[in-house]
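A.,

Following up on our hallway conversation. C-alpha cells first:
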C-alpha cells in the first residue's frame, strides 16, 4: 500500500478510485481490483490521520453525525423523522431529553443501532 503524504496525493487517489469504481465490478481486471483495494486503504489511512472524526458518545452527537452524512439541514432532518423542528432542536441542544417517538424515528429512519440508543438514553 502506498502511503499518501500530501493533500494533493489524497485528491489524486480519490479521483483514481472514483474512475475505477465507475467502471463497475464486472468491467475491471484483477489488477484494477487490487488497485481499488490499495487506494481505498491508503485513503482510509490518510483520512484517519488528517481528518479524524470523533466517535459519537451521545444520542444528539450520533444524530448530528447522521445528519452530516446525509447532508441534511436540521429542518429536513426533522421532516424525515416526523418531528417538529423545535423539538428536534431542543433535543440536539440538550434542552430536552429524547423520548420514545424520537428514539424510534432515529432507529427506523437513520438506522442508528438500538443498543447505542438504549445505552445512551
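Then the amino acids I'd put at each of the 121 positions:
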Amino acid at each position: 500500500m502506498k502511503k499518501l503524504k500530501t493533500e494533493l496525493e489524497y485528491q489524486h487517489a480519490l479521483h483514481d478510485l472514483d474512475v475505477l469504481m465507475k467502471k463497475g465490478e464486472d468491467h475491471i481486471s484483477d489488477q484494477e481490483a487490487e488497485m481499488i483495494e490499495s487506494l481505498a486503504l491508503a485513503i482510509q489511512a490518510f483520512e484517519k490521520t488528517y481528518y479524524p472524526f470523533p466517535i459519537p458518545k451521545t444520542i444528539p452527537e450520533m444524530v448530528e453525525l447522521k445528519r452530516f452524512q446525509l447532508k441534511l439541514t436540521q429542518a429536513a432532518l426533522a421532516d424525515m423523522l416526523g418531528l417538529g423542528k423545535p423539538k428536534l432542536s431542543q433535543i440536539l441542544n440538550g434542552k430536552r431529553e429524547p423520548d420514545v417517538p424520537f428514539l424510534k424515528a432515529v432507529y427506523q429512519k437513520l438506522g442508528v443501532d438500538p443498543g447505542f440508543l438504549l445505552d445512551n438514553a
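The chain has a mean pLDDT of 91. Curious whether your intuition agrees with the design.

B.
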